[in-house]
Design goal:
The chain has a single domain, classed as HIT-like (HIT family, subunit A), CATH 3.30.428. It is about 25% helix and about 20% strand. The chain contains three helices and five strands, in the order H-E-E-E-H-H-E-E. The protein has a five-stranded antiparallel sheet with strand order 1-2-3-5-4, with helices on one face. Helix 2 crosses helix 3. The longest helix has 17 residues. The structure holds 2'-deoxyguanosine-5'-monophosphate (DGP). The site of 2'-deoxyguanosine-5'-monophosphate has 14 residues, from strand 2.
């Protein structure tokens, strides 16, 4: 699947928009969220353009697993004991960028139920 020129996260993958990238391989890019909701707030994205997590899982169960594995590795590197991983799907759930992304949040306590 092609990258999309008017997609913010595709442009970050291509290096056309700067980002604080903490991890990168052929399939996954991870960078710090521009509006962090926790002391550590990192976004992990696939290097293919798909709209949301369900579409990603359908496209490649392996790739969505790679996001989770990378999130665990990054959490360890960042020294996070506990952390939260979130996929927002659809605007009513808070999704604002329609390129699948996994939020990795840590460094503070988290409430449940989420807001
Ligand atoms: P969501 O609301 O779940 O679609 O998450 C999108 C996240 O993307 C949101 O937490 C803010 C972040 N974000 C938006 N624009 C940029 C940007 O230009 N750079 C970075 N690093 N993060 C961005």
């Amino acid at each position: 699947m092609e990258l999309v020129s008017d997609c913010l996260f595709c442009r970050i993958i291509e290096g056309n928009i700067p980002a604080d990238i903490v991890f990168r391989n052929d399939n996954v890019v991870a960078f710090r969220d521009i509006t962090p909701q926790a002391p550590t707030h990192i976004l992990l994205i696939p290097t293919v353009h798909v709209e949301n997590a369900a579409a990603l899982a359908n496209l490649s169960p392996t790739l969505i697993s790679e996001l989770m594995i990378a999130a665990g590795d990054i959490a360890s590197q960042q020294g996070l004991e506990g952390y939260r991983t979130v996929f927002n799907t659809g605007s009513s759930a808070g999704q604002s960028v329609f390129h699948a992304h996994l939020h990795l949040l840590g460094g503070r306590p988290f409430a449940w139920p989420p807001g």
